[in-house]
Structure formats: structure tokens, C-alpha cells
Amino acid sequence: MNFVHSTPGTDSHPVAVTRVSETQWHAVEDDLTVGRGVAARRPDGRLFVSIDAWHGAVFDRIADAMLADLPTPLYTVVDEADHDSMSAWERAGFATARREWGYVVPTDPQITGLGSVRPPSGVTILPAGEAEEGPLRALDRLIRDEVEATAGWQTMPAEVLPRPAGTTVLDPSKYAVARHVDAYVGLVRVAPLTRQPRIGLIAVRSDRHRRGIARALLTHALGSLHRSGTASAWAEVDESNAAATALFESIGARRTAGTLELVRH
Keywords assigned by UniProt (predicted)? Predict the structure, then answer.
């Protein structure tokens, strides 16, 4: 596949933007690659784009080529502190759809105040790797369906990983589960990244909300990290999720970053 969009260059040389595959575009000026564009469809079906270019003018030309070739809506993600990138995407017709806060979360119970927290009556926390895979996958699907029917799964910060169609739990060993009697009612996923573990998801069945289950799951996850010698973890929270924001801020988590999800319809 080689669709070429030729435009005037940044100086005296023309820039040729070529679609080199279904998902990639290259900008070439005087035989030198000066920018790249990539499109990727996420597991929730949305199409995200990214552009890496040396100059703002080249960014604009790659964006024009991608917009001409791709269906809308299109999405992208930028650091809200990166004003140059934000301006570039706005020139391409993108607007803010939502904001996601990034938190550094302490693990020490002396800091979080979670040392005395216990699961609600009748609830047991199964450590990561001990949950039965079938019921875990069923709980994950139920929670996803509940979120999709309300706020929409796109508002849930989550690891975006390649996965087989229809598969949402890639590695059951990353999940700790809250069990009430014989039913799984909540889960927490922690990705053991080298630099800083990431709390990818905390979720509880809607009929078990406001019972302290999420706090118990977070207590378990942070306690496990603390005992392993990890001082802090990373988590993202959608700006509109007041309950999650309150939970993290109540344990001393520090908001250190903001990410904007942009959309072009």
C-alpha cells in the first residue's frame, strides 16, 4: 500500500507523506524520514492515532494525510503539560473528550492509614494468582458490561494491550479478588512493572458498592507491594470518577500528571 500525499516542504524541498501500510504513514523530505504517523485500534474498538514529527509543519501534513485516509471518530492522547502537542492536534480538528489524572500512590500503611482496614464481614480477599480462572473471567465480563451500560468502558483507565478478540483477562495471576461466600464480587489488577508497579484496575460489582470492598482490595494490593519492598505504585483515574478520586486522595496519593484524551468526529 503506497498512497502518496505530496506537499511543499519545510524549506526548499517537498515533503511526501506516504501510507506505507494499513496503520503507518511516513513523511520524507530530501530522502530523509522527517515524521511518522501510526494508527492503532484498541480493544474497545476505538481508533487511536499518534504522530512523531520533527517540525510542526510536517506534523500538520502527516495529520492531513491520515485524516484523509481514516474514518472518524479518531482519538489520541496527550500530556496536558505538552502545550505544543495540544496545539498541533487542535489544528487538526481534535478536541478534549476527557481528562485522566495520574497518581503516585504510597504503599506504606503508616502513610496510607490502611493498616487497620479489614474486609467487610463475609468478604475474603484472594491474593493474586489464587482466584479460579473461570469465575474471575465471568466477574470481569460482568463488571465491564455494567460499566459499559453506564459511564462507558472508555472512561476506565486500563492497560491497553494486544489481546485475542473477546478476551479481557490476559493474565489471571495479576488479579486479586474479593469473594463473598462463594461469589466473586470485586477485583484489583496490579501490573508488576520494573520501575513502578501499576494499579491497572479496581472494580466492584454494582450491587456490592459502598460496602468498603474497593478499599479492602486496595489495602491488600498496596500491602503486598509494601511487603515486597516497593515504596509506591502508579494509578490513573478518570476526572469524572469522583469515588475513585476520593479513595486515592484519602490515602495520601499525590496527583502528579494529567493526560487528555482528544477526539475528532
Answer: Acyltransferase, Transferase
